[in-house]
Amino acid sequence: xxxHEAASxxxxxxxxxxxxxxxxxxxxxxxxxxxDAERLRLLKxxxxxxxxxxxxxxxxxxxxxxxxxxxxxxxxHRRRAIARDMDMLAVGRRAMRAYSNNRVRR
Length: 106
Description:
mainly alpha
């Protein structure tokens, strides 16, 4: 891969990073994993051809890192929300079991 192709791969990785933020926000985990794998493949293929990294490519890499952090934040927020829902469900089940043994007898 030459330097021009590597820069194109880096731009495509940036586009994928933008897509990833939206996909992660919607909670589409399978698509998130697929896009992340494609982005990683592009970044790895471009790495050798971009040495040394010039300022333009460094800016793109910083933006990719920032978008990645946002996507991870969305996924972490969703994971915590699901964990809270599961905790509340468990509390409800325990309460139901506790009160179902104490029904009013007629």
